[in-house]
Amino acid sequence: MKYFPVGLLVMAPFGFGHHSFAMFELTKDVTYEGTVMEYRWENPHTHIIVKVEPGAADPATIGTWDVEGGSTNIMGRQGWTRATFKAGDHVKVVAHPMKDGTKGASLFYAVMPDGKRLYHDIARPKTEGASASAQ
Amino acid sequence: MSVLSWCHWLQNTPWATGIRQSDLWFPFIEGSHILALSLSVGLIVMFDLRLLRLVLPTEPASKIMRLVMPWAIPGFGIMFVTGGLLFFSQAEKAYSSGFFRVKMLLLVLLGVNAVVYQMKYYPSMAEWESSETVPRGVQVIAVVSLAFWMVVIACGRLMAYEL
């Protein structure tokens, strides 16, 4: 039994999906509003490449961002499809930026043209009510 | 054609795209890749620990080898095939990843390590397997195997943390 933890260590990542959220600043909700450059409906993560033009409400968000969502399975359960976005669409997403400052973020939710929110997974890590100030 | 442009072509072939976009195949392949670890690396770890006399020291090492290899080798085969499919589905990202390159290099070195064991120490196992003093070279091979496999697994995981 002395070596059992080695086995646990090897298997531990399996329970946590493709990767954890350790690299994202989960307490920070940043709104990125701009144009979809690319919408990649794929595994292990979906991606929305968003270009925020100069003149955006939050100048810190100007640039091109890789907003990462969950797997197609996880996103599908929240109502996302491969046709949710296409290149050229206007997009407004709220996401948690990378801790290291690179232009990437973990999707929290997207605000659709009718005002409805499409969440990444089960609105991890906060509830809808707690995030109202993010908009 | 550069390696990177070949990777670009490869991951955009219909079947690589199909794997990447499949709700069923991607998790099945990725899950199998990780579960097969327990068969292959799990059993290789047990064998390495036996070579170091830390596990089942009273059992002959050749017997442990005979018992674990019929499981470890197919396990490695599953990891190899599923790993290849995962690579095809995201070849560009994998090729660009430093972690992936370290992982591939260490897998080659692990292969060399195993071949050295087979050629140099396997034929003489009967002479030392029951003795309390394991040849120094065998100990080195076992420690290298344990250390490299751990780094290979860590690199495989860390690849996922690059956007």
Question: Can you offer a commentary on this structure?
Answer:
The complex is a heterodimer of chains A (135) and B (163). Helices cover 10% and strands 31% of the residues of chain A. Chain A is mainly beta and 135 residues long. Chain A is globular, with a radius of gyration of 16 Å. The model of chain A is unreliable at 1-17 and 129-135 (pLDDT under 50). Chain B has one domain. Helices cover 80% and strands 0% of the residues of chain B. The mean pLDDT of chain B is 94. Classes of the chains: A mainly beta (135), B mainly alpha (163). Chain A binds chain B through residues 3, 6-7, 10-11, 13-14, 18-19, 22-23, 41-44, 66, 68, 71-73, 76, 82, 98, 102, 104, and chain B through 17, 19-23, 26-27, 30-31, 34-35, 37-38, 41-42, 45, 49, 54-55, 89, 153, 157, 160-161, 163.
Structural class of chain B: mainly alpha
Q: Percentage of helical residues of chain A? A: 10-25%
Radius of gyration over C-alpha positions of chain B, nearest whole angstrom: 18 Å
Mean pLDDT of chain B: 94
Comma- or semicolon-separated keywords:
heterodimer, A: 135 residues, mainly beta, five-stranded mixed barrel, 2 helices, globular, disordered N terminus, disordered C terminus, B: 163 residues, mainly alpha, 8 helices, 0% strand
